[in-house]
């Protein structure tokens, strides 16, 4: 663990990115996570282009996302037990092969059940690079302020990925055959995950989590004595009961964080699929969806960098309630605007940007809450459960949106997103007191 105190502000980000043990896994994780933004949308675009059916596209993408959630929860626990590389390498190889097979099956007119089966295989074995990287920040930095910058960079990078991924997908669709973009996504998944697994942070995360847990519990070994002050400073003194918890879900407040994340993701899954339909209806071509994602993900990246660069007044749980409420309100005009004969593109782009400003800060707060609430030896599992809640919500959202869009076009999917994210804001307002008590 490094005791570098990166400070705050934009210079703090520079110090984090100039620190080799942080930069190398961060860049590798960016490559390995590009398929997060490419694979699901690539399935939607490919199936819609080849089969002309949003319901089938929503079903295949939905089961893929749901299977990813199930797999992430299992792999996160196994990474805490066996270490990150032993889990990430084989899962990346299996998932990459399944994604490639799915892309070829779609263009080969394979039956729907085969597509669903390959989507499940690809999802279950989808390598959990995001929770691994989030847990790695604890290995890389002992200072909480430095880790906060790391979390902000991580959340903002994910949003930039949601810019680069669809843009790359759109570019590849112009020059490659229909199955080409998904094949590239499979290659990036394997390459990035293998590069990340070779880094020092990935190789030592399991050992560090075990030592911190022992240090907080008071186990008298030379290594745990060295980590005692860091563990107490960043986690607080935990009882032996807390350290003995068999799952991160048993820690007070963790389930509530995951529930709010689930509602947000349920809305985001509907929003993603609705944006594909919007690109086809408003821009005349679903392959131009990268232009729409440029505004929403660009706004999210700016929001994440800004939120993480300083300490804001008030409690972060209230920040979360306000951000989710803003997310909801920014989507309310969409169904009405899309009903117009000529939807005003500048207003749509502005609303997407405002929506984006709220997303990455929410992810930063989720990660920070889990950092406070989860036992140190279950940190990877907790972050994996966060990813699982997000992908489970996305799965449900995509499946629902596939039906509502076929029935009521893009406005139907966007109305569902408003309901889901608004519910998340209400739940956060109700449970925020429990988070304060648990922390």
What would your notes on this structure say?
By secondary structure, this protein is mostly helical. The protein is 83% helix and 0% strand. The chain has 17 helices and no strands. The chain has helices spanning 9-17, 20-51, 54-82, 84-107, 112-124, 129-140, 144-175, 180-197, 200-217, 222-235, 240-243, 254-282, 289-308, 316-331, 334-337, 345-373, 379-438. The relative contact order is 0.16.
Shape: globular
Order of helices and strands: HHHHHHHHHHHHHHHHH
Radius of gyration: 21 Å
Write down the overall mean pLDDT: 82
Structural key phrases:
439 residues; mainly alpha; 17 helices; 83% helix
Helix-strand blueprint:
Elements: H1 9-17, H2 20-51, H3 54-82, H4 84-107, H5 112-124, H6 129-140, H7 144-175, H8 180-197, H9 200-217, H10 222-235, H11 240-243, H12 254-282, H13 289-308, H14 316-331, H15 334-337, H16 345-373, H17 379-438
Short characterization:
By secondary structure, the protein is an all-alpha fold. Helices cover 83% and strands 0% of the residues.
